[in-house]
Design brief:
Layout (H helix, E strand, L loop, with lengths): L1 E6 L7 H14 L4 E6 L1 H4 L6 H18 L7 E4 L5 H10 L4 H5 L2 H7 L7 H15 L5 E4 L4 H18 L7 E4 L33 H9 L17 H14 L3 H7 L5 H26 L3 H29 L9
Parallel strand pairs: 1-2, 2-3, 4-5
This protein binds adenosine monophosphate (AMP) and tryptophan.
Adenosine monophosphate binds next to α1.
Amino acid sequence: MRVFSGVQPTGNIHIGNYLGALRQFVDLQEGNECIYCIVDMHAITTPKDPAQLRSDTLDVAALYLAIGLDPARSIVFAQSDVPGHAELAWTLMCCAYTGELSRMTQFKEKSRGHESAPAGLFTYPILMAADILLYDSELVPVGSDQKQHIELCRDIAIRVNNRLGDVFVVPEGRFLKEGARIMSLDDPAAKMSKSAENPLSRISLLDDEAKIRKSIMRATTDSEGSVRFDPENKPGISNLLNIYSAFSCLPVPEIEKKYEGAGYGAFKSELASVAAGALAPIKERYTEIRHSARLAAALREGAERARAISGRTMARVKESFGLGLGAGGG
Ligand code: AMP
Ligand code: TRP
């Protein structure tokens, strides 16, 4: 299958992102043709410092390779390096309705309280639809918060196909399970997040062992003192058990057994070692890659391969819509 996903270039990528999403990107390389895009054009829907944006884009790309995306197998590139995204987005904008865009909860949330919002924030889901349809993508792994955007992408593809014939492949979303939700360490009622003020609320993929240990040792638990999975009554300990299980590949009941009669201190301390041990090779590879010629080459080559695929789709789209006179550079 052809798999496509996009990730925003932001800092603070944490173990929630990794366990809930990025790790699946790596697994999907097995037996599929994967295209992973760093969506820097989506990032500028809110103002960004230019130098910071470029640096964030490279950070995410390096992190992708560090967690095991293999540029020889998967296509990894920055969205703005492939002109087809913007080109197809315009075409799709003419096939979508302002009413359906107004219903997007993400737009409603982000524009709430403002008299006016950037037009790009409003048309964001169309650019996302273009990302997906440009590559005839069949499967799109994303967080469940993206469900509405995937539905819109499918609606637009079906609408165009009904009018103009089989122009687009209609993609399926693959939504990450709720079970993969990693909660904040200082408040287990909230999701672990990139933007939370307290850095001890999350474990970022590039944290060193001291920071990982400090965040886990300070994590909110309860006064019962037994290491038992009970998300309702013991959300803090249950979240730590989930993290332990995800990094060690041990099932939760086995971890419960291992720590029967042990205090939270011992459990947390060993969890810190397990997490730090799992993240150390990622950090090491990241440091090697981030400023390397290998990263630049992987992104250049990824963009070239993406341009070849998207060029074929755009030729088909333009033919179907009656656009262009074939006088362009091709
Ligand atoms: P975002 O932080 O919104 O850019 O998320 C990027 C990806 O990570 C999305 O697919 C989210 O569903 C996933 N994700 C974000 N936060 C968490 C979390 N705390 N637990 C599990 N998955 C998460
Ligand atoms: N909107 C997605 C998010 O915030 C990112 C994204 C942009 C994306 N284009 C995409 C995801 C195409 C999947 C496919 O997470």
